[in-house]
Amino acid sequence: MCGSKYSTSDCSLRSHIEIDKRYDTISRRCVKGFALSSLIALFTQFFYLSPVYALNLREVEQITKQQDFISQARQFRGDALGESAIADAQLPDPQLNLGLFNLPTDDFDINSEPNTQLRFGVSQSFPRGKTLAFKEKQTKWASDAEYQRASDEVLKSIQSAREHFFNLYYQISAQEILEESRQYFVQLIDIANSYYKVGRVNQQDILRAQLELSRLDDRVIELKTKEDLARAALSKWLDERAFEPVEKDYPTLPPLIPQQEIIDSLTNHQSIQAEDAMVSFFNAGVEIAHEQYKPGWNINVEYRKRFGDNIDGTNREDQVAAMVKVDLPIFTNKRQDRRLAASQHQVSAAKLVRSDKLQSLRQAVHRDYANWERLSERSELYETRLVPEANANARAALTAYQSGVTEFTTLAQARITQLNVRLEALHTKTERSRIHSRLLYFAEGTL
Fold first, then answer.
1. What's the CATH superfamily of 52-90+133-293+332-446?
2. What's the gap between Cα 28 and its chain centre?
3. CA 346, 350, 355 angle in degrees (round to 5)?
4. Listed residue (134, 111, 82, 121) closest to 302, CA to CA
5. Sign of CA dihedral 60, 62, 66, 71
6. CA torsion sign, 125 to 127 to 129 to 135?
7. What is the pLDDT of residues 220-232, one digit of tens each?
8. Are 235 and 207 in contact (CB under 8 A)?
């Protein structure tokens, strides 16, 4: 305070000088605080080492291949059908016939009647034409379809695991970005408090900084929730490993080939190969139906044992019988013709399903490739222009606020804009990688 020895003008000048000195002290402290926090962040980032157990994308892919139980189930179905194909190619088991014929019921004496016989025979049936050969082929095609579906299931699981992993990476990285901004707003509260004490700003600046800090805390909680959901999704394949720390380096994917090459290779894709196998399966059914117009055969050979003696005292001779049965496919309009027509309809339906599947894959490639190209452009724009411009704008706003040129609202808005741009840049990058993983699924026919 000024004493009596100072005039009124001197007191006023002295007060202004003291206030200016306090402003300079606060500004220097703020600059030092920001510099120190930036140095700490840089030091932490430079010396940060990912844990040796950190989860990365390559491990996720390998574990997914091993833990895809649906694919393994389809493999077993394919194995089962392969075994069945061998059995389908075999003739039916022969039949053993054993019986006692013409036994008299008055005394049940097997020697009293000359026509009493013990018959022992074997019969063997032969299916129509090459039915067995075509049944073997049909079952083999069904087995091949299951193997192709098993491979396709692995590709789908890897694609899904990749997408969930990139989603998880985004949630974790976004939390780190929010934590950096949170530290900034904590410092802004300190600055606003310091300026408020010297009368440079009003209390609204402090309340605004506290409000933005609370909103950041809410966004962090939301991201943590989504992180938990992403880890839960990955646990389908990774089990408890889904909850381990994630490697800090950005995950990389194999490069993409041109769009037209992907489209041209779709006929070699596992899902289309499975549909091709089903078309061949039903074609074999048509061949089986054609074979039903041919006769089937059944051969029976019997040995007939006779009991007792003839009138002259000699033993009754044993007998042998042979018989051939032949199917007569004469009336075919209600059976063979209908089965053939049904088999042909099955082939037509299978071909249409295959065409629809191929068309859906082509449509998905066009959609995702266009999306991937636009996301690539946006990602480059964020990296080369938007993020640097947002950072420069935030720095300029801080300098202007420290100089008393702008209000706290402008500074807060600049920092929020910088935060949102960084989050959007990260989201665009990870979304592009998710689309990339889908295109890799479609391009599997070229790998």
1. Outer membrane efflux proteins (OEP) (1.20.1600.10)
2. 54
3. 150
4. 121
5. positive
6. negative
7. 999 999 999 999 9
8. no
Residue 343 and residue 286 in contact, taking contact as beta carbons nearer than 8 Å: yes
Per-residue pLDDT at 428: 97
Predicted pLDDT of residue 189: 80
Whether pTM exceeds 0.85: no
The C-alpha atoms of residue 389 and residue 381 are separated, in whole angstroms, by: 11
From CA 443, how far away is CA 433, in angstroms rounded?
A: 15
pLDDT tens per residue across span 101-150: 888 888 888 887 888 889 999 999 999 999 999 999 999 999 999 999 99
- Identify the segments of the chain with pLDDT beneath 70: 1-53, 200-201, 445-447
Q: Token digits for 148?
A: 């192709």
Q: Which two tokens stand for residue 187?
A: 């410092």
Delimit the domains of the chain by residue range: 18-48, 52-90+133-293+332-446, 92-126+295-328
Calpha distance 447→257 (Å, rounded): 10
Cα-based distances in Å from 201 to 187, 195, 292, 334: 15, 6, 97, 97
- CA–CA distance, 97 with 304 (Å, rounded to integer): 11
Neighbours of 259 (CB within 10 A): 18
The answer to whether the CB of 97 falls within 8 A of the CB of 302 is: yes
Model confidence pLDDT, tens digit, residues 136-187 = 999 999 999 999 999 999 999 999 999 999 999 999 999 999 999 888 888 8
Q: How far apart are CA 257 and CA 208, in angstroms?
A: 50
Task: Answer for the pair 16, 205: CB distance below 8 angstroms, yes or no.
Answer: no
Query: How far apart are the C-alpha atoms of 300 and 122, rounded to whole Å?
Result: 6
Spell out the residues 6+ positions from residue 43 whose beta carbon is closer than 8 angstroms to its own: none
The dihedral over CA atoms of 196, 200, 203, 207, expressed in degrees to the nearest 10, equals -90
Q: Which residue has the tokens 């080492």?
A: 49
